[in-house]
Amino acid sequence: MRLGITGATGLVGANVADLALQRGDEVVCTRRGSSQAAHLAHLPIVWRQADLGDEDALAAAFAGCEVVVHAAAAVEAGGAVTPAMRETNVGGTRRVLAACRRAGVRRLVHVSSVAALGVSDGSCDVTEDAPFNFAEAGLLDGYVQTKREAQDVVVAAARAGDIDAVVVCPTYMFGPYDSKPSSGQLVVGIAQGRIPLHTEGSQNVVDVRDVARGILLAAEKGRAGELYILGGENVTYGEMFARIAEAGGWKAPGWRLPRWLLSPIGWGGDLAERLGFSPEVNTIRLNWLYARGYRFTSDKARAELGYAPGSPDEGIRACVAWMRERGMVR
Could you list the residue range(s) of the whole structural domain that residue 211 is in? Predict the structure, then answer.
């Protein structure tokens, strides 16, 4: 099979490319002229220069591809939706859809996020049918908003019969090829001793290689217009930090940080944001750290796709090993 991938230099796209090549697919990946791909130099990827803002270049890159995995996205800190984020995440997705139609691509797999679904009150796990309630939970930021808008665009097109597309929603991923890093920032922070405390919030953690397998399963078995959560295990931040520390042989953050101690810092960040600055911490980001209902189930993907994730510890260990080989952590 000839497989096209956007966002191949990122964590998800790189692992999809590697897995597809291992099974014998021809892999064509798009990248911007400024993208760094040295960490993928050992893979026989066919590269095509195509920005998400250039529909013609995308259509040319996708020519001959049976399936396209759209994994490219912009992630920015802060609460507001920026024009650049909406242009990349929403406008870029519209152009990928149009380019797939023009190139005669058989199926599109859109990589969304569980951050485009919903959050529970902590008493149950979130499913694909959850209401989009991030605003009510105080968790609506620019990334969440634009990923939801992009997801809605794909689902609407698929259900209208305009394109054969399926949506996957990964949870928090660890694994190799995290060159920027993304989730690997936690690994670096714990390795350097810069995260001495933890909060009481929760996350669903998964090996990114399991997500890559789930994406290829969705391309094969997913129902058009449907969403599939690709997750692993629900854990608290304290548990996740302890597992990272154990994998690297580092000291684990030992104390839980009460919310009231950080609230004034969040308020200061809100003020700084209103004044045009980009603070590292604001109230929304604190709400994420203390959200107990950010828990998910992958039962639908298990039943319909045959998705079978292993332990997220495998992904954490692979992330640590990959970063250590490249001198990113000691």
Answer: 2-177+203-234+295-303
Nearest to 295 by CA among 223, 240, 218, 224: 240
CATH code of residue 67: 3.40.50.720
For residues 173-178, give the mean pLDDT.
98
CA 169 remoteness from chain centre:
8
Q: Tell me the two tokens of residue 319.
A: 């992330």
Output the pTM of the full model: 0.96
188 membership: H or E segment, kind and range: helix 184-191
Asked if residue 252 lies in contact with residue 241, where contact means CB atoms within 8 angstroms, the answer is yes
**Rounded to an integer, what is the distance from CA 151 to the centroid of its chain?**
13
C-alpha to C-alpha distance for 142 and 133, rounded to whole angstroms: 14
Q: Is residue 231 helix, strand or coil?
A: coil
Indicate whether 253 belongs to any domain. Answer: no
28-33 contacts, C-beta under 8 A, 24 or more apart? 28/2, 28/3, 28/4, 28/61, 28/62, 28/64, 28/65, 29/4, 29/5, 30/4, 30/5, 30/6, 30/57, 30/58, 30/61, 30/72
pLDDT in tens, 144-170: 999 999 999 999 999 999 999 999 999
Taking the alpha carbons at both ends of the chain, their separation in whole angstroms is 40
Q: What is the DSSP letter of 115?
A: G
